[in-house]
Task: inverse folding
């Protein structure tokens, strides 16, 4: 499915998003740089652009390829399209969904380890 078609289909945030506490954020590795992931859904990610790389290095509609590195050290290759750039935050729509079981695992981990002390 083309990104444009997928974007139209999912543009209304139909999927549950997991917002990560600071200390539980996975990382997105693109080439040699790593970025903290602020939140994820099955079809999208929002990440913080690191201080070494200027936001102007990302452009709307740019295709990005990388690897999500979760706290349990699981790796997930991903490809997506930059939808928005807001300050140091980049929002991208993924070409393939993050597996539902990974989303559930992330949610359960946050509830188990951060339910009483969530600070986003």
Result:
């Amino acid at each position: 499915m083309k990104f444009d078609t997928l974007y139209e289909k999912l543009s209304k945030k139909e999927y549950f998003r997991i917002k990560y506490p600071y200390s539980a954020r996975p990382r997105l590795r693109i080439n040699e740089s790593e970025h903290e992931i602020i939140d994820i859904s099955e079809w999208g990610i929002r990440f913080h652009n690191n201080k070494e790389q200027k936001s102007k290095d990302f452009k709307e509609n740019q295709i990005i390829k990388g690897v999500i590195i979760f706290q349990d050290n699981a790796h997930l290759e991903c490809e997506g399209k930059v939808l928005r750039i807001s300050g140091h935050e980049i929002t991208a729509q993924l070409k393939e969904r993050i597996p539902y079981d990974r989303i559930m695992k992330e949610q359960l981990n946050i509830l188990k380890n951060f339910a009483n002390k969530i600070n986003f």
Notes: Strands lie at 18-19, 27-30, 33-41, 44-48, 63-69, 75-86, 89-94. The chain is about 20% helix and 40% strand. Helices lie at 3-10, 100-114. The longest strand covers residues 75-86.
